[in-house]
Amino acid sequence: MPQVVGSVYLLGRGALRLGEAAAVASGGCRQLAAARCCSGEPPKGPRSQGPNCKSCGKPLRSATNLPSSRYLMCDSCSKLYMGGAVEESLQQRLNLMKPEQRRSPPYPTQVAEYLDKFVVGQMQAKKTLAVGVYQHYRRLEHNVESGAVSAASMAYKTPETNIPRGVLYQETQGGMSSLSLGEMQRAGAQQGAQQQQQQPAAPSRPMFRALPDKEPPLRLEKSNIMLVGPSGVGKTFLTQTLARVLDVPIALCDCTSMTQAGYVGEDVESVIQKLVQAAGGNVERAQQGIVFLDEVDKIAASNDGHSHAYRDVSGEGVQHALLKLVEGTMVNVKSGRKGMGAQQETVQVDTTDILFVASGAFTALDKIVGGRLDKKSLGFGSTSGTRRISAEDKQSEMAKKRDALLAQADQGDLIQFGIVPELVGRFPVLVPFHSFDKESLVRVLTEPANSLLAQLKLQFAIDNVELSFSSEALDEIATAALERKTGARALRSIVESALLEPKFIVPGSDIEAVHVTREAIRGSESVIYTRRSEPKQAALS
């Protein structure tokens, strides 16, 4: 067997190319020149938990003298790897795992039960999100096990024949001789020049691949979700609560700060960058994550007649940038880890399997739906305008009418609102949220595990004070919140205003209980204090 001395190999897509090898050597790595040869025998014995060399099977160590910790080295055969070259794919990990070790994803009923502990009502939204999350798990598992590859990955896949494997070594009669980096570069340049001289200009001929003999595995596509509802009904809170129970990376993004590429603000690609950071820099795990696009209605195209006079960089421009991102494409983003030259390394992320969930208030969407339904009902015996919300309607009736109209909204209404048709078509699942009535707001105050009253009671309990509310006080809080028309967000403002004086007086006093009444919420009377029989003064430090 010929002896191989001082060789640097190009192995697969993750190995070092010539330019990268030169950059590595310029950073001070001189261990490659004096390295020993590899026997070429297949690995023996059980594999270790860490990455192993593909030739000898021995564990790789971190090349600590290199600027980036991504590079790994085999001390036995002196092969230099990048981290991505030796990472096992998800398919390999699934094959190595025993059936009992594979955790089953949470069933839709289990996800809905978990959400019931924190979110009041909105059963239709809970069911839709629970089903979407469960199907997301199952879809990823099926596509990985069946080997179904996305179109974006196939388009960017580099064939192995394009890798210049003959650049970094030189064959001789006695085997292979080691080359310095300068010789490597000159050899690569000479080889490229010789190939250009020897190969005559071949006539351009179309190259065709043979049709596959068998059908490719069926690939399950994703169904993105659009959440629609008034402000303060739990759209953002529901997604934040769901993120705590999932075992996939989650990125919560606000569309109000997004602008078209080249303008001041966040680019659309920053959404995927946040997802990669949530995955700890693991690109493979980020490609299976979920992205929540909050306030997506704020990027609607302007319906102003003068909109042609300026470029809508924060509206329709952002929508067009989101098109391919939502459907599935390869995006170059910064991973957040330091690479060569103290710069952040750039990674490619396939967004085909990333589930997108968008939410927005879509103010006045109910009027668009009502106008569409009234046009369809025109004729003899019909009452035009009955579906629209009038000023004479009471607030409770207005909320019921608004909920009924949003339940009948479709993609055409979103297009008329200002969302481009291409983006609307990429969100096939439309989920309406209903408004909160007085009974629902009282439940929001008391029922969830992290309710507002539970938090306030804990704050007073820290000072050994018991806080209580009368049922009339809870009704008054809910009534005042309805008048402000901001949903459940108004509850905290009302309660905090009523408890300002007790929070100021109670610490360090002899008060042991605080009772809040309806008059205290209205501001006509003070809260009821209960004092201890033996007051204790706080020690002054």
From TrEMBL:
Gene3D superfamilies linked to this entry: 1.10.8.60, P-loop containing nucleotide triphosphate hydrolases
Record key words, sorted: ATP-binding, Nucleotide-binding
Location of the region described as Disordered in the Swiss-Prot/TrEMBL record: 184-209
Any one biological process term the GO annotation gives: proteolysis involved in protein catabolic process
Any one GO CC term of the record: mitochondrial matrix
Please tell me whether the keyword DNA-binding is annotated for this protein: no
Alphabetized InterPro entries for the sequence: AAA+_ATPase (IPR003593), ATP-dep_Clp_protease_ClpX (IPR050052), ATPase_AAA_core (IPR003959), Clp_ATPase_C (IPR019489), P-loop_NTPase (IPR027417), Znf_ribbon_CLPX-like (IPR059067)
Q: Which residues cross the membrane?
A: none
Q: Which GO terms describe its molecular function?
A: ATP binding; ATP hydrolysis activity
Q: What is this protein's record name?
A: AAA protein
Q: Which organism is it from?
A: Pristionchus pacificus
